[in-house]
Amino acid sequence: MKLFFASDLHGSLPATEKTIQCFKSSGADFLILLGDILNHGPRNPIPEGYNPSAVAERLNQYADSIIAVRGNCDSEVDQMLLTFPMMMDYAWVLLNKTQRLFLTHGHTYNSDNRPVLKKGDVIAHGHTHIPVAEFQGEQIIYNPGSVTFPKGGFPASYGLLVDGWLTVMTFEGLELAKVQL
């Protein structure tokens, strides 16, 4: 199974188009959206190409391949535009017999406030807009960064899970972080 991760699109149509193009060319089985999909939020500037309804239309074309969780900028009104569910605060994905992937946005659960996890489990979240792929204690903390508002001096980025490796990549193909499951 190959997974593609994106977070914090914040309604930017150009960032969404780049994300979809990369998702399609990656050959990933699923597109995992870690929240803040349509709305830019009151603390962020209006992003380039801000067009939440067009972003929803584009993402809806891939609804059967999307697993999404709610971000702190997502609302029930946003859900009305989307044909895939995105109002869950978290979701679990079974990676194998011993490892789970906990998907969340990061504003509630994150590396500092983890749900009950087993040794080797992964918590994947966005929210900080800063890419991370590393063991912290007994769990893996994974953040694909942001496709629209990267922070910490990092470029826009996304994530991949391929052959037991979690990687954070730039749209130019540069590897920012990597950890083995």
Give an overview in words.
- The chain is an alpha/beta fold.
- It has a single domain (3-180), classed as 4-Layer Sandwich (Purple Acid Phosphatase, chain A, domain 2), CATH 3.60.21.
- The protein has 3 helices and 11 strands.
- It has a 6-stranded mixed beta sheet with strand order 3-2-1-9-10-11, covered by helices on one side. The protein has a 5-stranded mixed beta sheet with strand order 4-5-6-8-7, with no helix packed on it.
- A hairpin with a 2-residue loop joins strand 9 (157-162) and strand 10 (165-170).
- Helix 1 runs parallel beside helix 2 (52-60).
- The chain is globular, with a radius of gyration of 15 Å.
- The protein starts with a strand and ends with a strand.
Summarize the structure.
This protein is α/β, with parallel strands linked by helices and 181 residues long. It is built from 3 helices and 11 strands, in the order E-H-E-H-E-H-E-E-E-E-E-E-E-E.
List the helices and strands and how they pair.
Elements: E1 3-6, H1 13-26, E2 30-33, H2 52-60, E3 66-68, H3 76-81, E4 90-94, E5 100-104, E6 122-124, E7 132-136, E8 139-143, E9 157-162, E10 165-170, E11 175-180
Parallel strand pairs: 1-2, 2-3, 5-6, 6-8
Antiparallel strand pairs: 1-9, 4-5, 7-8, 9-10, 10-11
